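pls design
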């Protein structure tokens, strides 16, 4: 990989990392405002219905992956005319998908809501309004997908960051607004939450149309190209469906345990923390994904494999820097964030989902490399089929055992490990990825850093009484111990030298600017 590309990845990562921290802080505060306005029961209803609609997001996720792959691939080749055709064709496909999905969700999702869902007495009418509004919001989010894909393919991370910040600020304004409404706040909240996807979609459209020549939609249809994209998307769709079932399907299964929507509420709070960490991971991969695809399309196979290994390792370090103190201080963080009367199981749900997110982050670089080749059929069949096992496993745990609900999350963690073993096998076959080198360059450093960094903070967490003082001490020690462990155990000599050179260049640049 050229120095220019490495520099671009570093700059984009820093930008998106900063964006993520701001989005995370505002998002956490927003959840607190919403909890005060709605209460745990209504939050559980909103989260349950949102999961029902999100079950269909496997279509948008798979199409988003296809869009990013084709846009980045053609940019790597410098084929602008084909970019225009692909944009118009993909937009046409998305319009068709939106129409079909809205009809399907409204029919089958609505039947599930009124016949199966465990909704508290007196709240079904509000739940219906939430459902219809969630479908409408989902439709606008889908329509923005090709525009986001173009933005990411062009590596315009500033726009991506600004739009994410705008989105969370709009959500915060909605949360504050419903606090001053005397009518049914859940219904008003559902209606106002439509504003965010509508506004961001329109802004994405205006910007992309002005700055990117390919974003001039005109009806275009090429049977062979459409067949190629749909075929590529079809197998990715299976993998996306499996991921959505694991994530959102579990929420529906949890709803059947004693506690119903209150368990959904606990899972919603845990999922918010999980989502924040996932956004951190996405921030790094959003910066590296186009480079992986462009490296493949440009014939730089060795550089692509190097970037896959490096991004797997360093994304873990970035995530672990935040996850370690959260794991050790979960009860205090949740009590500080959500105040009193936490729903039962919130702490254990949060910890298990954080661990699961750390395991999941290894999937992104390998998946991107496989998608760049277009050879996704058997990869998605195996990985998606493995991830789908969580649904029958969760049902069996609920129906045939007396184990508590958190064992559903334990099963999810085990299945995530099994799925990643399968990913490595297919990466070896499709990408010629050396599993031995991957274990040496990625897994061993990650395990060493995790163990070394956790020793002192864990001892302190068990030695000091819970409170603000322990949180500050443990958090500080976590950052320091992780940084030292990464520098000493988690990096090669050349990687350390690259960082030193980068720091020196920044210092010299600042000195020149002062002069």
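designed seq:
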């Amino acid at each position: 990989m050229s120095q220019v590309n490495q520099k671009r990845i570093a700059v984009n990562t820093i930008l998106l990392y900063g964006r993520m921290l701001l989005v995370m802080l505002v998002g956490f505060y927003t959840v607190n405002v919403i909890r005060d306005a709605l209460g745990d029961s209504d939050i559980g209803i909103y989260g349950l219905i949102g999961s029902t609609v999100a079950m269909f997001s496997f279509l948008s996720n798979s199409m988003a992956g296809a869009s990013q792959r084709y846009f980045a691939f053609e940019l790597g080749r410098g084929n602008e005319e084909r970019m225009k055709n692909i944009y118009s064709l993909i937009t046409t496909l998305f319009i068709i998908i939106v129409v079909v999905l809205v009809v399907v969700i409204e029919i089958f999702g609505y039947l599930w809501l009124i016949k199966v869902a465990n909704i508290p007495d007196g709240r079904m009418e509000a739940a219906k309004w939430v459902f219809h509004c969630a479908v409408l919001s989902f439709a606008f989010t889908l329509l923005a997908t090709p525009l986001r894909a173009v933005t990411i393919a062009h590596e315009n991370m500033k726009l991506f960051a600004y739009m994410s910040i705008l989105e969370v600020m709009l959500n915060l304004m909605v949360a504050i607004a419903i606090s001053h409404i005397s009518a049914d706040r859940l219904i008003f909240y559902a209606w106002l939450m439509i504003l965010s996807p509508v506004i961001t979609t329109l802004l994405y459209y205006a910007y992309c149309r002005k700055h990117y020549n390919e974003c001039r939609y005109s009806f275009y249809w090429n049977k062979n190209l459409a067949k190629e994209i749909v075929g590529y998307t079809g197998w990715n769709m299976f993998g996306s469906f499996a991921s959505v079932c694991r994530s959102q399907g579990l929420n529906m299964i949890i709803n059947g345990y004693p506690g119903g929507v209150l368990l959904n509420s606990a899972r919603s709070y845990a999922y918010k923390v999980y989502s924040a960490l996932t956004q951190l991971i996405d921030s790094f991969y959003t910066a590296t994904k186009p480079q992986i695809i462009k490296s493949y399309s440009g014939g730089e196979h060795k550089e692509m494999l190097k970037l896959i290994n490096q991004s797997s390792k360093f994304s873990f370090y970035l995530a672990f820097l935040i996850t370690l103190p959260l794991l050790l201080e979960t009860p205090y963080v949740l009590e500080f964030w959500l105040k009193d009367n936490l729903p039962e199981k919130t702490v254990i749900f949060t910890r298990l989902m954080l661990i699961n997110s750390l395991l999941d982050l290894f999937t992104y670089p390998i998946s991107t490399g496989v998608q760049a080749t277009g050879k996704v059929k058997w990869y998605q069949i195996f990985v998606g089929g493995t991830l789908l096992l969580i649904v029958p496993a969760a049902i069996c745990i609920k129906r045939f055992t007396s184990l508590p609900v958190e064992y559903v999350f334990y099963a999810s963690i085990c299945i995530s490990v099994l799925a990643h073993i399968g990913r490595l096998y297919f990466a070896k076959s499709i990408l010629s990825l050396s599993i031995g080198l991957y274990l040496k360059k990625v897994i061993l450093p990650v395990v060493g850093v995790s163990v070394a960094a956790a020793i002192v903070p864990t001892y302190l967490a068990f030695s000091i009484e819970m409170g603000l003082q322990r949180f500050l001490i443990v958090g500080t020690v976590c950052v320091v111990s992780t940084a030292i462990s990464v520098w000493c155990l988690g990096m090669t000599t050349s990687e350390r030298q690259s960082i030193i050179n980068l720091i020196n260049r920044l210092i010299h640049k600042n000195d020149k600017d002062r002069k």
